[in-house]
Write a structure and sequence with these properties.
421 residues, mainly alpha, Growth Hormone, Chain: A, 18 helices
Length: 421
Amino acid sequence: MRARWLIVSLLFTGGAISYLDRAALSVAAPLIAKALDLDAAHLGIVFSVFFLGYAPMSFIGGAAADRFGPRRVLLVAMTIWSIACGATAAATTLAFLIVIRLIFGMGEGPFCATAVKMVSHHFEPERQASAIGLAYAGQPLGAALAGPIVGLVATLYGWRTSFLVIACFGLAWVLLWYLFAAERRPAAVPVVEQSASVEQAAGSAPDRPGLLKTLRHRSIIATCIAFFSYAYVLYFFLSWFPTYLVRSYHLSLSEMGFISMIPWLAGTVGLAAGGVLCDAFSRFIGNPLLARKLLIGVCLFVTAICVGFAGRVTSVVGVMVLMTIGVFALYVTSSLYYALVLKIVPDQVSGGVSGFINLTANLAGVVAPMATGYMLTWSGSFSGAFALAAGVAVVGASAILLFVRAEEKVPVPAHLGMQKG
């Protein structure tokens, strides 16, 4: 039991570092834009290119975790992204910054799906949503800490030094992960289930779907749409909200850094509570799938309302209250997409499928920052960007509520049917 929660603690810390690293650019963006002579459109490209590396590697990293084990994959991934984060300090041109952000994104890509795989190997199904939620709760905490840490270091020593400092955090985590994270395989498949899997693998062609057919399953597609909408709102907020506060309310870098902590701290609580709440709700109604889809759908609708109104209010207090509620509700759902995957797909492909939904979700990381940058350049206002983010959240909530209808287990792909979990 102690070893399990050590893994969760390390994943919590790793998630915090990952968001500290990626949020650092958003916090330092006004200084970087001035130093490298970048306009809003250029900043949008820099924010987005991270996800051009992140999205495909989230899928590839999840599949690699299925093959090589999550411990090894996370060890390599964190090393790559920490070095790339530190290398950001050497950026002197837009092209150099784009290349570094691309490599940085590739390094961070495997984290989420690989963490899910690690949890699936250490926790029983009835505790997985709670464990994933607690492990991922470090992510918004890292984003909350990015404001004061990067803001303070950048103000005192320059923005380049801030990237070197947080890169050291990542390399220290690599050492701890190497020393203390233990690999573990899940228990062997029970005899009855194993026989059924073998029989299915030996059956007719319609009963032996390949991996692509597995990914085309209705529930997985609906989960991808909902997760994309979650990610769109998240990356719109992560990339542009600090700049929005500076431009619209004329806050200093240090003021913005501390004020922007508030929604992220609420997100930390929401993410940690989401999995626990989901597991408790599942036990209460006796239907884990229904519990997951209801929480995702309702919370995405709450987020849509808050984000939509945040673009229309005119006071910084009003914006912060709405975004704090919206980010809290958004993060309640964060671990539930992966918990849903663990409920409907076999362990043999849980890393790959988790990576695939992470890939589709993080395409929003390409779209949201770039679209916001061009909308801002064209209109000079953030109001349209807030409205678009709210609309995307409504689409995601509708997808999860309408199309994830039955608690059905996705069959094991034919080429994996003879394998044990």
